[in-house]
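Weekly structure sync, notes
Attendees: PL (lead), two postdocs, one rotation student
Agenda item 3: pending single-chain targets
PL asked that the sequence for the first pending target be pasted directly into the notes so everyone works from the same version. It is reproduced below exactly as submitted, 52 residues in total.
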Amino acid sequence: IQDYVDEHDIDVVVMGTHGRKGIDRYLLGSVTERVVRTSDVPVLTVRQPADE
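Predicted structure, written out during the meeting:
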């Protein structure tokens, strides 16, 4: 994702989240979280509604 942002001069990244918690998040990690922590551009995260 970061390579794409760099190559295409992206101003902001928008990503969805599942709201994973606890051991699942620890074991599986989060692509969104990793992008938020490493991106040079702002990252807007959107959480999926709880009923879906």
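Discussion points:
- The beta strands are 13-17, 43-47.
- The longest helix spans residues 31-38.
Action: rotation student to compare against the earlier draft before next sync.
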